[in-house]
C-alpha cells in the first residue's frame, strides 16, 4: 500500500521531470519543422532517464538506505549513472536506426562512440541521481524519523504502564491490610473504610491507567485515602490538608502525588511526648502544580530512610517523572531529626 508520504514524493518527482522536459523541449532546436521527429528524439532518451531514476528512487535507494551503510548508497548511485550512460547510448543508436529507416529525420551531427557517449552522459546522469536521490533520501529519513518517534512513544507508554502496574498492587495491599486490622476492633469504621476503598478502586479502574486525569479527580482520590488514614489512626495522629487550586480542570498524570502521600503515612511516627503529624498541601497556578507533604519521624525511621529503604514507591515515582515530565518537574526531599518533607513541582 502506497503511503501518503510516498504519494507526495512521486507527485513531486513527476512535477520536477515535467519541468525538466519542458525546459529541454523549449531550448532544443532539433528538427524545429518536424514535430514528430523532435518529439521522438527528445522523449526517447528522457523516457529512459525518467524510468531509471524512478527505479532508483523507489526501489534501489530505499533498500540501500535501509542497510544503513553510506558506501552502499554511493555504489548504487554511481552504478545507476553508468547504466543510464549505456541506456542513453542505446537510445542514440535507436534514433539512428529509426532515421535510417525513414521513420524520423536524422540529425546531421556525427554520432559519439560508445565510450565517448558513456563519458559524456554519466556525469549528467550522476547529477540527476544525486538531486532526485537526495530528495528521496529526505523523504526516507523523514519516514525513519517518524517510525523512530512511534517506537519511542510505544516504549514510553510500555514503561509507564509497567511502573503504573507496580503502584496498584502495592497500594491495594496496604489498604486491605488496614481494613483487616480495623475489622477486628471496629466493624462500623471498617465499613466506612470499605466504602472509601470502593471509591478508590473505582478511580484505579477508570482513571489510574489513563495518560492523564483531571486534578479535581486526583484530589478526590487523595481525600479518600486521607479519610481512610484518619479512621485508621483515630486521634493518635494530627492530619492537616490544604488545597489552593486555581483550575480544577488542569490535567496531570494519575497517582503522582499519591505516592508521596502514601510514603508519608507509611513512615510517620509519634514522638514520645506528642502526637505525630502528616501535613499535605497542594497549590495550582496556571500551568504550575506544587504538592508538599511532611510527616513526623523518629530517629529510627530517619536512619531507615537515609539508608534508602523507603520501598519501591519513591524510586518508582522518580522513574515515572523522568518519563512523563522529563525537564518539567522538580522533586526535593528534605529530612531532619523531627520531620521528613517532600516537595514535588510539575509543569503541566
Structure notes:
With 348 residues, the protein is of the alpha+beta class. It has two domains: 4-148, no CATH class; 233-347, Heat Shock Protein 90 (2-Layer Sandwich), CATH 3.30.565.10. Helix content is 66%, strand content 14%. The protein has nine helices and seven strands, in the order H-H-H-H-H-E-H-E-E-H-E-E-H-H-E-E. It has helices at 4-27, 35-66, 70-100, 114-183, 187-206, 215-233, 256-267, 299-306, 312-324, and strands spanning 213-214, 237-245, 251-252, 276-285, 288-296, 329-335, 339-347. The protein has a five-stranded mixed β-sheet, covered by helices on one side. It has a two-stranded antiparallel ribbon with strand order 1-3. Helix 1 (4-27) packs antiparallel against helix 2 (35-66) and helix 5 packs antiparallel against helix 6 (215-233). The longest helix has 70 residues, at 114-183. The two termini are 39 Å apart. The relative contact order is 0.07. The model has no long low-confidence stretch (mean pLDDT 82).
Helix-strand makeup class: alpha+beta
Order of helices and strands: HHHHHEHEEHEEHHEE
How can the largest sheet be summarized?
5 strands, mixed
Instruction: Give a count of the beta strands, DSSP E runs of length 2 or more.
Output: 7
Tell me the domain tally: 2
Q: How many alpha or pi helices?
A: 9
Rounded radius of gyration (Å): 37 Å
- What would the principal axes of the Cα set say about the shape? rod-shaped
Give the neighbour order of strands across the main sheet. Answer: 2-4-5-7-6
Residue fraction in strands: 5-15%
Low-confidence stretches: none
End-to-end Cα distance, whole Å, is 39 Å
Helix content: 55-70%
The mean pLDDT is: 82
Amino acid at each position: 500500500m502506497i503511503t501518503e508520504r510516498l504519494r507526495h514524493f512521486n507527485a513531486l518527482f513527476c512535477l520536477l521531470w515535467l519541468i525538466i522536459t519542458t525546459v529541454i523541449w523549449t531550448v532544443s532546436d532539433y528538427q524545429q519543422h518536424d514535430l514528430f521527429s523532435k518529439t521522438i528524439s527528445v522523449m526517447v532518451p528522457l523516457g529512459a532517464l525518467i524510468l531509471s531514476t524512478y527505479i532508483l528512487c523507489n526501489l534501489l535507494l530505499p533498500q540501500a538506505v535501509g542497510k544503513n551503510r553510506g558506501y552502499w548508497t554511493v555504489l548504487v548511485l554511481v552504478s545507476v549513472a553508468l547504466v543510464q550512460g549505456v541506456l542513453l547510448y542505446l537510445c542514440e543508436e535507436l534514433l539512428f536506426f529509426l532515421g535510417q529507416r525513414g521513420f524520423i529525420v536524422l540529425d546531421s551531427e556525427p554520432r559519439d562512440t560508445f565510450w565517448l557517449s558513456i563519458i559524456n552522459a554519466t556525469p549528467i546522469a550522476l547529477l540527476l541521481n544525486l538531486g532526485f536521490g537526495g530528495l528521496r533520501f529526505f523523504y526516507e529519513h523523514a519516514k525513519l524519523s517518524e517510525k523512530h518517534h512511534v517506537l519511542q512513544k510505544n516504549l514510553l507508554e510500555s514503561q509507564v504502564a509497567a511502573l503504573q502496574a507496580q503502584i496498584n498492587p502495592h497500594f491495594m495491599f496496604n489498604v486491605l491490610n488496614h481494613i483487616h486490622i480495623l475489622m477486628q476492633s471496629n466493624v462500623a469504621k471498617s465499613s466506612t473504610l470499605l466504602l472509601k476503598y470502593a471509591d478508590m478502586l473505582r478511580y484505579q479502574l477508570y482513571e489510574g491507567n489513563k495518560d492523564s486525569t483531571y486534578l479535581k479527580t486526583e484530589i478526590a482520590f487523595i481525600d479518600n485515602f486521607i479519610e481512610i488514614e484518619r479512621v485508621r489512626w483515630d486521634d493518635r495522629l494530627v492530619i492537616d490538608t490544604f488545597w489552593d487550586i486555581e483550575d480544577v480542570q488542569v490535567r496531570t498524570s494519575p497517582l503522582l502525588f499519591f505516592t508521596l502521600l502514601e510514603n508519608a503515612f507509611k513512615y510517620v511516627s509519634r514522638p514520645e511526648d506528642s502526637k505525630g503529624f502528616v501535613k499535605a498541601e497542594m497549590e495550582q497556578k496556571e500551568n504550575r502544580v506544587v504538592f508538599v507533604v511532611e510527616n513526623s519521624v523518629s530517629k529510627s525511621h530517619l536512619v531507615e530512610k537515609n539508608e534508602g529503604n523507603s520501598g519501591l514507591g519513591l524510586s518508582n515515582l522518580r522513574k515515572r517523572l523522568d518519563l512523563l515530565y522529563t525537564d518539567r518537574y522538580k522533586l526535593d526531599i528534605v529530612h531532619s531529626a523531627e520531620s521528613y518533607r517532600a516537595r514535588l513541582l510539575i509543569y503541566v
